């Protein structure tokens, strides 16, 4: 049983914290002032110490310093009611491993402990939705543009912000990409949550600017109560954390990633299947310069595929074959096999949000640029029996009328197929609801 020592002069606060730990099967020690805390710590060598700052006999900073000198492996979390940057910095300098603001929830503690003491087994988080019960999943589009934001009167209907999609499903808030649209999402979340803390999971498809540039302007990252998990894959030239931090280095931005007050954890994914709470996620590498993935989320009310940047292999491989002297049949076989994998990945999806940056004519001039044409994506969605397709990652040079025409073209292709695929162009601010499925 892991041991925790709670050093806190306020009896009520101490009891609340002790209860939280006792419920999770921790052995709890309590001290009501700094000096008693220090003695208990040295005698019992707990794995974790929670320490208040303002206490009689020996304040939290002194306690941290003494413990750090004498008990190196013990992790110290300072809990404070005061939100002063100087307190936080001093506590960390004195040897604290983390500084958390009161009131403390178990969720916050649990994720912090998971980070500081990964060897201590954690109980699975309580399921926020009872099993077999399904609530509608909501998908809101905050940024639908590719490449660069294009505000202005020619893009007012579909929107000018770059990639950001919010998914609310099974008690989770999952954000797909952090393009400039994430700024507006941040403001909406702040309004909704008020003083309550939020727990968010941000899935990054890749680190091209149009998918990460909004992160420094995401206001929930500036609130120390919030837990933000950022998940993505290692890039071609550097790790995910390094790339996200580099866009916030001094020449580009005044606040560094490390200075963001929220509990922002960047985790590099290794597996192509993982869970976000009860939502099962699958990833698939895209055909796009560098490392880029698409995600498929399986929620209790349906599945959502998100492939913001991707190019089909058919034309590309043939072009390369003609240029590099590769056998044309081999090129065709490769492309056919890759297409089949994509169809399998999208199979039966309720909603597919797909890169359709180009018209057919434009694509012919941009083979190898890493993006798709409307026609190729409609054909994929038809073969994969997708229920609803959203044309996404609109070209910055396409105005609203142009996107209308692309939707028309897509719908005409669907009509010809006789299949029931629904097609729309992704529009900033739009919301899609996946109706709850009846429990099996
Ligand atoms: Zn992009
Ligand atoms: Zn890209």
SSE blueprint:
Blueprint: E1 3-7, H1 11-23, E2 27-31, H2 34-44, E3 48-52, H3 60-70, E4 75-80, H4 85-94, E5 98-101, H5 106-116, E6 137-143, E7 164-169, E8 172-176, H6 182-193, E9 199-203, H7 209-212, E10 227-232, H8 240-246, E11 263-268, E12 273-276, E13 279-285, E14 293-299, E15 302-307, H9 314-324, H10 328-346, E16 351-355, H11 360-365, H12 374-383, E17 388-392, H13 400-417, E18 422-425, E19 431-434
Parallel strand pairs: 1-2, 1-3, 3-4, 4-5, 8-9, 9-10, 10-11, 15-16, 16-17, 17-18
Antiparallel strand pairs: 6-7, 6-19, 7-8, 12-13, 13-14, 14-15
Helix pairs in contact: 2-3, 9-10, 12-13
Residues 206, 208, 288, 309 line the site of one zinc ion (ZN).
Keywords:
single chain; alpha/beta; seven-stranded mixed β-sheet; binds zinc ion
Describe the structure.
- The chain is α/β, with parallel strands linked by helices.
- The chain is 32% helix and 23% strand.
- The chain is built from 13 helices and 19 strands.
- The strands form three sheets. The protein has a seven-stranded mixed beta sheet with strand order 11-10-9-8-7-6-19. A seven-stranded mixed beta sheet has the order 12-13-14-15-16-17-18, with helices on one face.
- A hairpin with a 2-residue loop joins β12 (273-276) and β13 (279-285).
- The protein is elongated and about 80 Å long.
- The relative contact order is 0.10.
- It binds zinc ion (2 copies).
What class do helices, strands and sheet pairing give? alpha/beta
What would you call the shape? elongated
Q: Estimate the strand proportion.
A: 15-25%
Kindly report the average pLDDT value. 91
How far is it from the N-terminal to the C-terminal residue, by CA? 39 Å
Give the strand tally.
19
Describe the largest sheet: 7 strands, mixed
pLDDT < 50 runs, ≥5 residues = 127-132
* Computed Rg: 25 Å
Helical amount = 25-40%
| Ions, cofactors and other bound molecules | zinc ion
Number of helical stretches of at least 4 residues: 13
């Amino acid at each position: 049983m892991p041991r925790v020592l709670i050093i806190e002069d306020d009896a009520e606060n101490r009891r609340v914290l002790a209860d939280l730990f006792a419920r999770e099967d921790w052995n709890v020690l309590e001290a009501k002032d700094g000096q008693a805390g220090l003695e208990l710590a040295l005698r019992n060598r707990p794995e974790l110490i929670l320490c208040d700052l303002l206490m009689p006999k020996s304040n939290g900073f002194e306690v941290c310093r003494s413990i750090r000198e004498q008990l190196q492996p013990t992790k110290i979390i300072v809990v404070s009611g005061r939100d002063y940057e100087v307190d936080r910095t001093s506590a960390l300098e004195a040897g604290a491993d983390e500084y958390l603001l009161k009131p403390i929830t178990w969720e916050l503690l649990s994720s912090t402990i998971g980070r500081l003491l990964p060897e201590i087994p954690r109980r699975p988080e309580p399921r926020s939705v009872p099993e077999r019960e399904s609530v509608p999943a909501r998908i809101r589009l905050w940024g639908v543009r590719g490449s660069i934001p294009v505000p202005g009167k020619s893009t007012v209907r579909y929107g000018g912000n770059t990639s950001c999609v919010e998914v609310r499903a099974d008690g989770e808030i999952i954000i797909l990409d952090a393009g400039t649209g994430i700024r507006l999402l941040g403001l909406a979340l702040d309004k909704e949550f008020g003083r309550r803390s939020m727990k968010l999971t941000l899935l990054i498809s890749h680190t091209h600017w149009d998918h990460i540039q909004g992160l420094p302007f995401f206001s929930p990252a500036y609130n120390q109560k919030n837990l933000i998990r950022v998940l993505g894959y290692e890039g071609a030239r550097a790790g995910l954390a390094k790339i996200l931090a580099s866009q916030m280095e001094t020449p580009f931005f005044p606040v560094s990633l490390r200075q963001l007050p929220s509990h922002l954890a960047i985790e590099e994914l290794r597996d192509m299947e993982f869970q976000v709470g009860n939502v099962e996620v699958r990833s698939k590498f895209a055909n796009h310069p560098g490392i880029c993935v698409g995600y498929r989320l399986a929620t209790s009310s349906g599945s959502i595929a998100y492939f913001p940047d991707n190019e089909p292999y058919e034309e590309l491989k043939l072009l390369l074959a003609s240029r590099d002297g590769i056998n044309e049949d081999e090129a065709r076989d490769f492309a056919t096999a890759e297409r089949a994998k994509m169809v399998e990945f999208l199979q039966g999806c309720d909603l597919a949000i797909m890169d359709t940056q180009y018209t057919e004519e434009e694509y012919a001039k941009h083979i190898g640029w890493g993006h798709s044409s409307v026609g190729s994506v409609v054909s994929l969605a038809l073969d994969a029996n997708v229920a609803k397709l959203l044309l996404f990652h609109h070209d910055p040079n396409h105005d609203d009328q142009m996107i209308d025409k692309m939707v028309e073209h897509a719908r005409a292709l669907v009509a010809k197929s006789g299949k029931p695929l629904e097609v729309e162009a992704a529009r900033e601010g739009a919301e899609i609801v996946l109706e709850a499925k009846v429990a099996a």
